[in-house]
Each structure stands twice: as structure tokens, then as C-alpha cells.
Amino acid sequence: RRKRMKGFEVCWIPGTDHAGIATQWVVEKELAKEGLTRHDVKREKFLERVWKWKEQYGNRIINQLKKLGTSCDWDRERFTMDEGFSKA
Asked: What is the pTM of this model?
């Protein structure tokens, strides 16, 4: 940001991380409201719920950055759990 403000041409690649523990905690609270635990729904179903939550709520930061008019390279947006990053 500082370099951009000084007139340098800088590429800003937007991205978010998975906030794994925080996300898990929120999904586990939702399950508790249903009288369930993560152990009750098994790993695959739990992960499905985590990804569903991420899709529903996890893009808030990105949407806020877009509304602010940030000049990011939106075609190169990244998430820490993207395929290539997970393998690395």
C-alpha cells in the first residue's frame, strides 16, 4: 500500500485464510444447537458443513474489499485451502 501511494506499480493479490480453529468452533456451535457433535456427523459430513459455512460467510472480507473499491487483481484471488496451496 505504501509503495502504491508513492506511485509505484504494485500488484495486490487479494486472499483470505481458512481460520480453521475459529471456523470449526462456529460449525460445532451450530451442530450443538441440533444436539450433535462433530463426532456424531463423521469427518466427511463435518467437512462439508465447514465448507458450506465458508461459502456462506467466508467471503465477507472479499466483498467488503470490493465495495471499498480496492484495486486488487481479482482474477488471482487466493484462499489458503485452494488445491495448490493445500498440497504445498
From this structure: 0.63
